[in-house]
Design goal:
11-stranded mixed β-sheet, 682 residues, mainly beta, Hypothetical Protein Tm1070, Chain: A
């Protein structure tokens, strides 16, 4: 009995250990499962056609790791957006697989350990985007694994880290970067991705990056409404090899990215009204020093509606800097600064480019060859955010200039520089000879239109930027030849380049839709004097002589003006108009009414209004019988007030000024040019 009692504690311990073993052995493995999250739901510009969305990330746990040397189960992963998926196609041919810049990365590979699937597997004829993988029994490359899991060699080849007893096709050289193929207009597919359950060794991370979407197609919600979401959805096949919880995730919210306006100063808040310029005003002559030619007509201004709406091309792309660290030029190639944007540990880059590793060679041709230049440019944008101003209805005879560098309205580091074209590599424009100042350049006017494009070279994602650019006009006044022509010019402001390619294509990135509206910026109006001849007759043996003098040539320095006059006749026998020849400044046009209206049967009696295309016109009429033998009289023509005359109580003064004539007095520059005629009574 004593011996039995002594055995009770020992038996209890044995029973406890056996029970624990039974419980442990009965405990099931955690099933393989993946949880999706949208990472960063980045703001997307409603104007954008190729907006980068946030990465969709899967965190996978549990399951049974693939045994050493055994092929890892492969999964086709199709990715959908609720709009067109517009990631750049690296394929230049419309036939065959359409290789996309969209990438899938396994286990957050660091720079130098990113191994793309870009070759066939052994002698098998498979897609260049499909690579097998082999397990190591642990489902991870981390300790306690003693052999490689990912590597640059041939998949399944013997690894130098293998130890005795491990099969010859031991793991190592598995690939961790996979390229998508465009499947439909709103989806891409990653084919044959090896997904190894991590078991209890940790987690498997699947990241999908470089997905771009057509935000413009979804539009913007109304005022005070929740921004429109871009939703990304995963569809794995077979689903049991990649079971995903919550496969649909919001990856971006669409907002208006840009506010455009025209302002009177570079930093002020006063919106500019359309400037009215007189055709006879020669103070914008490009050859006149110190003239209004050197003064901006107004400033076009671009304001980002959220802090990351303006983006430079890629991280660290500034090539040369100027005073104060202002970026002057960009790198032409991402190869110039090595790794680029390929470290996912840093978070969001806030650039137009996505994940970029120029060292990776990815399939881009129908046969799997890489034709991209430089190689591996998946994710790389062609340029930073570009801002465009399109001027239309520019009058013939007008030269248009813009500032090369933008002026921030506040102390922000954002900078944009004039580039030579809407598309193409950044090419800074230099000052044009004879431009209004050392910081402006002339635009090419074609069929009345001219375009200026500035590229953002520096951008702070933590500030709201607002950039202003002045524009200038130059012309030589020549009313007699109708130069500059009479017209109202407009401007539209938008992102650039604008495009109608709204689906995935082997085309430039980024691309934008033009959602702008035109704003009137300046109008060329005629310089006029309207003269009333209240009584004219060629009947009953009488005739009338008229004289019109162009008197802008004077001792006061008034700008000489010349032009034609239109004689408008109003009488019982005739109503119509006749032109005069050009009346040069300092000369007088004279004629007999009987000669001018020689086709009016029975003569003419009535009045005449002469509309002269120059200021300071004065008229005289002389009526007499034949030879002025019995009766003759003369009078000065009356000057009819300009219909766009001065406000009540403000008289116009006939003193020389920048408009070449009548004005509203000192201090009214801008308003004075709206006055096109005179009000001098006679």
């Amino acid at each position: 009995m004593v011996d039995f009692r002594r055995m009770i504690p020992v038996l209890a311990v044995i029973a406890f250990l056996l029970g624990s073993a039974v419980i442990a052995s009965a405990q099931p493995n955690v099933p393989f499962q993946c949880f999706a999250n949208g990472g960063v739901s980045t703001p997307a510009r409603s104007e954008g056609i190729t907006e980068l969305v946030g990465d969709l990330v899967l965190n996978c746990i549990g399951g049974v790791p693939t045994a050493p040397g055994v092929s890892i189960p492969q999964v086709n992963i199709q990715v959908f957006l609720n709009t067109s998926l517009t990631s750049r196609l690296l394929t230049t041919s419309s036939s065959g697989p359409q290789y996309s810049e969209a990438l899938l990365l396994l286990d957050e590979p660091v720079p130098g350990a990113q191994y793309p699937c870009n070759t066939t597997v052994g002698a098998l004829t498979v897609s260049p985007t499909v690579c097998s993988g082999f397990g190591n029994g642990l489902g991870t490359a981390n300790p306690p694994s003693t052999i490689g899991y990912y590597g640059p060699g041939v998949v399944g080849s013997t690894s130098g880290a293998c130890t005795a007893g491990v099969p010859a096709t031991c793991p190592g050289n598995n690939k961790n970067v996979f390229q998508a193929i465009q499947t439909t207009s709103n989806s891409v597919t990653f084919l044959g991705v090896p997904i190894d359950p991590p078991g209890t060794s940790g987690s498997r991370v699947v990241r999908i990056t470089n997905i771009r979407g057509n935000a413009n197609a979804l539009g913007v919600a109304g005022a005070n409404a929740t921004p429109t979401p871009i939703v990304e959805t995963l569809s794995p096949t077979p689903a049991q090899f990649l079971p995903v919880s919550n496969p649909s995730q919001t990856v971006a919210f669409i907002q208006r990215g840009l506010t455009f306006g025209v302002f009177t100063t570079a930093t002020g808040t006063s919106a500019a009204s359309s400037t009215t310029l007189q055709q006879c005003n020669n103070n914008r002559n490009t050859s006149t020093p110190g003239a209004l030619f050197a003064v901006p007509v107004a400033f076009v201004r671009y304001t980002e509606n959220f802090a990351t709406a303006f983006k430079k091309r890629f991280f660290g792309d500034c090539d040369t800097t100027g005073t104060g660290g202002v970026c002057l030029t960009n790198l032409s190639s991402p190869l110039a600064n090595g790794g680029l944007q390929n470290d996912l540990r840093v978070g969001t880059y806030n650039t137009e480019s996505g994940f970029v590793n120029p060292a990776m060679v990815l399939p881009s041709g129908a046969n799997g060859s890489n034709t991209a230049t430089p190689p591996g440019t998946a994710g790389l944008a062609d340029w930073g955010t570009r801002l465009k101003a399109v001027f239309n209805n520019i009058p013939t005879g007008v030269s248009l200039y813009v500032d090369i560098n933008g002026t921030p309205t506040t102390a922000v580091p954002d900078r944009a520089v004039l580039t030579s074209a809407e598309t193409g590599a950044f090419s800074p424009v230099t000052t044009t000879s004879g431009a209004p100042n050392a910081g402006s350049a002339q635009l090419t006017v074609t069929n009345g239109s001219a375009t200026a494009v500035w590229e953002v070279l520096q951008s702070d994602p933590n500030t709201f930027a607002s950039l202003s650019f002045g524009f200038y006009l130059g012309y030589t006044a020549s009313p007699g030849t109708n130069s500059p022509a009479l017209s109202t010019a407009t401007v539209n402001g938008s992102y650039a380049p604008t495009s109608t390619v709204t689906i995935a294509a082997n085309a430039n990135v980024p691309r934008f839709a033009d959602t702008s509206t035109a704003t009137n910026v300046f109008t060329i109006v005629p310089c006029l004097t309207t003269l009333l001849f209240p009584y004219i007759t060629t009947q009953a043996g009488f005739d009338t002589g008229i004289a019109i003098s162009a008197t802008a040539t004077d001792p006061f320095g008034t700008t000489p003006q010349s032009g034609t006059c239109t004689l408008n006749w109003y009488g019982t026998a005739f109503t119509g108009a006749t032109p005069t020849p050009n009346v040069n400044s300092g000369t007088t046009y004279s004629a007999l009414v009987s000669t001018t209206l020689n086709n009016v049967t029975g003569g003419f009696t009535g009045y005449m209004i002469a509309v002269c295309r120059f200021q300071y016109a004065h008229g005289f009429a002389f009526i007499s019988d034949l030879g002025a033998r019995n009766l003759a009289m003369g009078y000065l023509a009356l000057v009819i007030p300009d219909p766009t005359g001065a406000p009540t109580g403000l008289g116009r003064q006939p003193v020389p000024n920048v408009c070449g004539g009548a004005n509203l007095g000192a201090g009214f520059i801008g308003t004075i040019c709206a006055v096109t005629g005179e009000n001098l009574s006679n």
